[in-house]
Amino acid sequence: MDIEVAATQITVTFVDGRVVDYMTFTEAGKKWGVKRCTLDTWKRRGKLTGLIKIGNTYFIPSDSEKPKPKSIGRPRKRV
To answer: What's the pTM?
Structure first.
């Protein structure tokens, strides 16, 4: 595995030839319009996949999708 670091962007080349770009939690929050604490919650709940940790910083693949929110609102009454 080969890691290239440029400011906050990281490019990882895996042994099998895959090349993946990663972004920080702050960049992901700006991209998806959520706060960092929301990303931390999603991380704890396992909703973010492909995370890597370097030092104290987590990185998310740049091409990953924003997790779907759970249904919001009042539950329906059962009759």
So the answer is: 0.68
